[in-house]
Amino acid sequence: MTRDLATVRDLVRETEVHRDVYTSPAVFDLEMKHVFGNAWVYVGHASQIPAMGDFTTTTIGTTPVVMVRQGNGAIGVLINRCPHKGTRVANEPCGNAGRFFRCPYHAWSFRLDGTVAAIPLPGGYENTGFKDSTAAQGMTPVGHVHVYRDFVFARLAESGIGFEDFFGEGLSSIDNMVDRSPVGKLEVVGGVLRYLHKCNYKMLMENLTDTCHPMVAHESSAGTAVNVWKTMPEGTPRHPAVEIYAPFMSSYQFYEAMGIRVWPNGHGHTGVSHSIHSDYSAIPGYFEQMVAAYGEERAKSILDTARHNTAYFPNMTVKGPIQTLRLFKPVAADRTMVESWTFRLVGAPDRLLERTLMYSRLINAPTSPVGHDDLEMYERAQDALHADANPWINMQRLYDPGEEAQASAVANGTTEWQMRNQFRAWKALMREAAP
Amino acid sequence: MTDHEAIAFVLHEARLIDEQRLDEWLDLFTEDGRYWMPLEMGQTDPILHNSLFYDDKILLRIRIERLKGAKTYSQKPKSRCHHLMQAPLVERREGGEISTWAAFHYVETRLDEQTLYAGWARHTLVVEDGRPRIRLKRVDLVNCDSAFGNIQLFM
C-alpha cells in the first residue's frame, strides 16, 4: 500500500493517532525518509573513538552509518556503503580503520573523510567518464555532524533545521549529566545491552513520559521488590537494588507533582521538581569532590536536578542522575533495537558507575523484570492494534486546546502533552521540504 | 563431596529449574551466593562492566516471587524451559571449593515462541551444613553479546 504525505499527516490528530503510524510498513518507510532524514539523530559518543581511525557503526533510522575519528581530530559520519557495489565497508560494532577504510569486496579504499584514496587497476576507468560518476565521490558523508559536549549527532539532510535550533533548551539535560562529573567529562564504559523489541519504536518514546503506568505495569517487579524487602529482618542495610526498584511504586500524587516539561521540536522530560531518582543514597566522597570542583551552591544545584527521562525526539533518551542513555533504533514498523549505554563520570568514585550498571541491568536489560513488564505491554499493543473496530490510540490526558501555541511549558506530571508534542514534531517533518 | 556427588548436584540443579521448583532452587545457594551471566566473552569484572545477570540471593528471591505474582502480566501465560546438559566435569578443588563445568543447550518457551540458547555453566560449590551449595553459578552464553528478547527464567 502506498501512502502520500498528506494522508499520512491526517493519521495524527490533536489528541489521538491512527494505529497505522505503528503498524504500516508504508508509513514506516516515509518516517525513515522524512523524520529520520531531517532530524538530528544521536550516533555515538566521542569517548568511543579516541584515536585516529577509531570507528563505531550504527544506524540513522535504517541508514547504516559509520562514525570515525579523522586525522585532524574531527569526528565524521559517513554512509556505511561502498560507492562501488554497495557493500557495507565497516562491519564490526567498533574498531580501528587505520588511515583508510578499505572495502573487502574489490579493495577500493577511502580516506577517513570518505574520499577515494585508491582503486585497483585504475587504468580500467580511464576515458570512461568515471571521474564524473557518483562512485568517484567516495563514501557519502551525512549532511551535517554536530558534537555537543562529546555527544555526536548527525542530520542526513544537507539543509534543514540547525542543531541548536532543533534541541534548544533540551540540551540542559545533557549538560546536567556531564556536569555531574567533577571534571565535566563522561566516558562510555560497561558494554552495551541490546534488547530486541517486537514493537514500533514510538511506543518506547511515548512510554518515557507515561507516568500512569509504573504503579500498574511494574507492580509485578517493583511491587514484589518492596514486599520482599519488608520480609527482611529489621536493621538489614538498605539494598542498592531495592533502592532502584522501590520508587517505581510511588503514588499517582508523586508522579503528578513531579511535573513534565515540554520543549519545541518534540523534546521534553519528566521529573521537573523531583523524580524516582531523587532519593538514592549518597556515595562517600562524591559530594566533596563536586564541591571542590564547582563550589557548594553550584554542586548542590547540579545534584538536586533529578530529571527522570529526557526524551530527545525522534529516538533517544538520557537519565542524567543515573548516567544512562537509551537509543530506540527502528528496524521495521514492528521491530526496534533498544540499546542501553552507560557512562562513567570521569573523576568520580567507581561506586557511581557500579550503581549505573546495576540500574541498567535491572531496568533496561533483556533479563530485567521491569523490561519484561514494559515489553509485554508493547507487544500486546503491537498485535492488538490490528483490530479494525477502533483504529485510534488516545493521548488526551490533561489536553489543553491552547497548548500547541506554547512552545515550552511545565505541566502536571501525568499529562500526555509530551506524547502529543512528539507527534506534532513528527507531523511537521512529514513533508516534502524540511521546515 | 565426591566428584560423583558434585556432578549429580549440578544435574539436579538444572532439573529443579526445568520443573520450576524455584524455592528449592534458591535454597541451593549459599547466603552470599551469586548467579552471574556475563555480557562479554571471558569477562572477569562483574562490578564495573555490565552483565545480563549478577544477582545475589535477594535479587533472585525478587525474580522468583515475581514469577508467581498474580499481576505479572509477562507470565500470562507462563514461560517454560528445558535444559539439555552434557555430563559436568569436575575442574578444580581448592580451599573447600569444587568447580564444575558443563556445556548446555537451553530452551525457553512462551506462547508460540521457542528460543534456543547455548552456553557453558560453571558452578563453584561448597559444603554447608553437610550438603552441597552454590557459591557462584556462572553462565556464559556462546552469544552473550547478541541482542535478545525477554529472558525471563534461569539457565
Concise overview:
Chain A has helices spanning 5-9, 20-23, 25-38, 163-167, 172-179, 201-207, 214-217, 219-230, 240-245, 252-258, 286-294, 296-304, 350-363, 369-384, 417-429; strands at 16-18, 41-45, 54-60, 63-69, 75-79, 94-96, 100-102, 109-111, 116-118, 144-148, 151-155, 186-188, 193-197, 260-262, 268-270, 310-312, 316-319, 324-332, 335-345, 392-394, 409-411. Chain A is of the alpha+beta class and 435 residues long. In chain A, strands 12, 13, 14, 15, 16, 17, 18, 19 and 21 form a nine-stranded antiparallel beta sheet that branches.
Could you please describe the fold and organization of this structure?
The complex is a heterodimer of chains A (435) and B (155). Chain A starts with a helix and ends in a 6-residue tail after the last helix. In chain A, α11 (286-294) packs across α12 (296-304). In chain A, β16 and β17 (316-319) form a beta hairpin. In chain A, 31% of the residues lie in helices and 22% in strands. Chain A has helices spanning 5-9, 20-23, 25-38, 163-167, 172-179, 201-207, 214-217, 219-230, 240-245, 252-258, 286-294, 296-304, 350-363, 369-384, 417-429; strands spanning 16-18, 41-45, 54-60, 63-69, 75-79, 94-96, 100-102, 109-111, 116-118, 144-148, 151-155, 186-188, 193-197, 260-262, 268-270, 310-312, 316-319, 324-332, 335-345, 392-394, 409-411. With 435 residues, chain A is of the alpha+beta class. Chain A has 2 domains: 41-148, Rieske [2Fe-2S] iron-sulphur domain (Rieske Iron-sulfur Protein); 191-429, Alpha-Beta Complex (Naphthalene 1,2-dioxygenase Alpha Subunit, Chain A, domain 1), CATH 3.90.380. Chain B is globular. Chain B has a single domain, classed as Nuclear Transport Factor 2, Chain: A (Roll). In chain B, strands 1, 2, 3, 4, 5, 6 and 7 form a 7-stranded mixed β-sheet that branches. The model of chain B has no long low-confidence stretch (mean pLDDT 97). The interface between A and B is large, with 44 and 31 residues.
